[in-house]
Amino acid sequence: MTNPALDEDRLRTEARAILRENDLGGYTIPTKGLYPFQWNWDSCLVALGLAHVDEDRALTEIETLVAHQWPDGMVPHIVFHADHETYFPGPDVWGTARATPTSGITQPPVLGYALRRLLDGARDGAMVAPRVAALLPKVAAWHRWFANARDPEATGLVAILHPWESGRDNAIDWDDALARVPTDGIGSYVRRDTTHVDAAQRPTKEEYDRYLWLVQRFRRLGWNQAALHDASPFRVVDPGFNAILTRSAEDLAAMARALDAPEIAAEAESQAARGRAALDGLWHDGLGQYAAYDRAAGALVESASIGGLLPLMALEPGHPRVDALVARLAGLRAAVSHPVPSHDPADPRFDRLRYWRGPLWLIANRLVADGLARHGRAEAAAEIARDGLALVARSGFGEYFDPLDGRALGGKRFSWTAAMVLDFLEMA
To answer: Which domains does the chain have, with CATH numbers?
Structure first.
């Protein structure tokens, strides 16, 4: 749908240019300097934008990522394809002993979700379908790893063991659990991120100290994924992460049925059903949305973040919680100039500038819009897309944005923002 108030051709041209300049061959970096390697969910979401330009290149993006899947099934959150001095912590800190160095933790499993979007929207089905089919066992292995390594008591919900795994590194959701992580023995280090971005827009040093303590703890355990869950003082069940996993399992099942892989389909359908049923335990009546669960403390977290709205993309149509989530979204839209904030502005801990403690992210908006469309709110989904396009047209292709005045924050000329613009242009 054309929006006459926007120069859509200019936005499209600039988005494509950003993806080209951040393309290092088989993978796309998020942005130059700040993030010089391949990130897991960045690549999967960037593929959604690349698909509008070059389907072959979109699939290569994902194939390059899963080529570095661990033997146990984990897909790491960073692949260090080449040496670079502008990022910390680099491969020497992680010490995972991979042929191509990687981190030792994972990220939100949007892979199955992204692949289904590529398959369903394929213009060249004869090229896309067999390559997607070849990837299905990789997706299934990753989902199986989550069940084995992150849900040891078979609850249907998986835990993250490091805030970086959530993709929402410094979300308010993690504050209490992260405060339990010690900082002794981490030694001195030099951050690189604050040489690229104003420190007021990044996680604090206190948070970084704890992030690094966890990395060092896991490294001392030899990255034995079977041991990490119980060894981590940070064990949090994120409703957004679990909604993404549940939806990706649903999408994996649909692809497997379509591509004649019935065993993968059956396993994925079972996992999706368990995940949907278990999400109900994360509902927080007081917040009117889903909330994280601190597995180590045994309690729901008092924190109203965008993670608690993402179950919209996993709940079955007609679910009784949908109307409440739509109402929560409406309330958040009324509270800011540019929706959707990553945290409720009514919370005194809200910070309009600092990463995932308040700013809006177009990738989160894309997932929320998908959830709205899933439940028959197509116009509300399109409105989110239009808002995002107008924001980028005004402020540029930032990493994230101030939800109050719309200024671009974080890294500049950001790949997944460009990708979401290309995707939103098809939705708006």
So the answer is: 8-427 (1.50.10.10)
